[in-house]
Amino acid sequence: MIGGVTNSGEPTDPIVPAPSRVVAERFGLDVSALETTLGTALARRADFADLYFEHRTLHSVSLDEGIVKKANQSISQGVGVRVLAGEKTGYAFSDELSIENLKLAAENARAIASTDDGAQSVDLRGTPSAPRHDLYPVESSALLPKLADRADLLARVDREARGFDPRIKNVMAQVAVEDKVVLVANSDGDLIADHRPLLRLSVSCIAEDGDKRQQGSSGGGGRVAFEFLTDDAERALAFARDAARQAIVNLDAIEAPAGEMNVVLGPGWPGVLLHEAVGHGLEGDFNRKGTSAFAKLMGELVASELCTVVDDGTIASRRGSLNVDDEGTPTGRNVLIEKGRLCGYLQDRMNARLMGASPTGNGRRESFMHYPMPRMTNTFMLAGEDAPEDIIRSVADGLYAVSFGGGQVDITNGKFVFSASEAYRIEGGKITAPVKGATLIGSGPEIMKRITRVGSDLALDDGIGTCGKDGQSVPVGVGLPTIRIDGITVGGTKA
Amino acid sequence: MNGAELLDLAIETAGGAGASAADAVMIDWTSAAAQVRLGEVETVKMSRERRLGIRCFVGNASAMASTADLTADAVRAFVHDVVEMAGIVAPDPDAGLPTADELATDQPDLGLADAAGDAISPDERVDLAMRCEEAALAVDPRLTNSEGAEFSNSSSRIAYGASTGFRGAYETTGYSLSVAPVATEGDQMQRDSWYDSRRAYAQLAAPAEVGRMAAERALRRLNARKVPTQSVPIVFDPITAASLMRHLASAVCGGALYHRASFLLDKLGEDIAAPTVTVVDDGRLPGGLASRPFDGEGLATRRNVIVDQGRLSGYLLDSYSARKLGKTATGSAARSAGDAPSASPTNFHLAAGSHTPEEIVASVDRGLYVTGLSGFGVNGVTGDYSRGASGLWIENGELTHAVEEITIAGNLLEMFRGIEMIGSDLEFRSSICAPTVLIGRMTVAGS
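Predict the joint structure of the above. Result:
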């Protein structure tokens, strides 16, 4: 982790140097070059300027047909220069970290401001570091073991999945390890660095039985060391069995029902409901522009009183967690809905300033090639009091959905979809036949009011989520206890 | 170093480090964009990326990597790493470069680059976006808000080389304009968008036309309601019909086939669609958004007929998937800097039919005209299909009220076989496209 809480510039942990050393050792520059660049960026009466340096390596290895066929490595680094003036953003980036390129990027970015006042002076040295979290202290060596060890893990995943059932005919598995160092310098004088590990295993199985063919998938990870997958918990093998199990279950899936019905969502990854139905609609940019279905509902009841929804970037080791966001703001635990009442938005710096609010640590971007936007971190609903089995038992005729492929939302009219990849009928309070994948559709503010039971079994997902917005992808987490929704449209074929 | 020099350096270094074969791609790309919203500049963005990707073989084992650090020393060190990685990966008997006799012998100019963009100033970009949004908002007083308009232009140079001696390069440009107005009535809001995207600046639709289309699309979504669950004919507009072609394209690509993850596995030569359906993937369409003179392995691109009057007549294969399936590569390898080549569609389209879109809608007694689809409810292994939909209800052959918060569901194979009419309105606005399509019956889930 970076630096601790002091501003001395001394590393408190040998893994991660202080920001000024990151500038020198990782990016080959010195702090005064950053100050000069920010001064150039500000030269035209801009409100604010920042520099975002990023160095990223991605190592992935893939298995298919029982063979480790692919090993990939990607290295990228660069700097994005952003200038804000009123509601305007100027953005330019360079993947060559020379002083000349920094100056050019700053000149391009400041084109949105018109009046030339000459270069401003910015002092990055005297600024104390903001208090920070230390959520993922993983050494690079613990994150990325030798290729042979990663390949060996995939071979074990393959054997485990095939061993689950002879009808498993192919296993595709990948381990991806991302190691990212970011550094933010801005015209307020902040100079903040972060080191971000990210591990993910994905497993996908094809099952065949006569003419029937089906797939199942699973996986997980987080901002954790590689041993997360290989330690005594044998998580990698559990993910392998889960993918195989899902493929086998789906072989016998019957037609999904069509029409409005009562639906029980299982714990964990079905929290993608909240991400689509609530989360995106509460991102500051859409609300500043008045284009979100939630734009005028602050303080109003937008969900049943059983629902408290938070976005929390501060949970240790989670895929969606960050010590600081991509603007250097420490992440937080932000309550979005409390007992049904809308009480918070997700903000980056610009939207917070324009809305008279405070940044919430949700300014995120895909890479140095992109400017930040308000984005989610880990979004979940707090646990309620009902036993999960009582919730299922309470439904006479409905659907029990435990896994989803993904979702999407139209921010403006609030309509969202999410697509079940493993679901079952509930008949007479009992889980019965598996049904084929079906899309569920509803309106965010309406569906949240139809949540009538909330279970005691809150779980976060296993660390597989990626959220896309305006062409930018960022890792996120979701979570949910078992819940019951009284009436949502299920898009099956059986009318 | 320029792109050609970097390719030479990377391939020579790989050979010296012990690779038995190697190929490399160099991508050099710049883009400039202006976004405006409600008459004000919102974002101005300048982008440039240079990236080198290399794939090294040690016998039948391979590894890949990409980097943006393009100094000679860094490239040498990086290539050594990749060769070392290849030494650890398991051998795969089907891995390898295409043979020299498979490689493209011609590199025709397909009209992919138009230098007009060099002369477009930042102010002009802003002006084009402004005019587009203004035109949209002027259509109706109910258009009170906007997510903004964007104009962008980009240019790329792609160079590819292999240890077989192949060297090739081509340039492309792109111009695009889009706008997303918001229509308001009472307490309801509806957003929709329209865009155009071309290789040549002069062919780009006028800002006023893009704005007008977006405005009409947003306005017609107002006062939408759910309809009851039922089984009815579905008319897909060209935008949503194109998404059906994307699902078809995914199912005929080599990767999905050898993974046994396609609902079209083992169906070559079978009737998989109505006899009026012909689908073509044309990698050499002049000015096409996905055209290129050679593919990501140096094979000549070509016109591949995928569905010939309803019969599945071809797959899209790169040389690896072709070897796996015992077939011939089709010049369909796509290549990004960091990833291995994989078969992928180019200009993939459903051939136009003879009916006007109006005739198609008029033929439906009671059904749904779909203009928007959402979500990921398509199972490529089984073809099972279930997506969120919005559009307009058809009653007695006429478009009536807007519809939303419903799903449409079926199975892609049955849907393609159930195509009853194909429109004459094919336009190459995106690389995968289709005209208006009528499918006889699907399940609508609503209230």
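Chain B touches chain A through 79 residues (CB under 8 Å).
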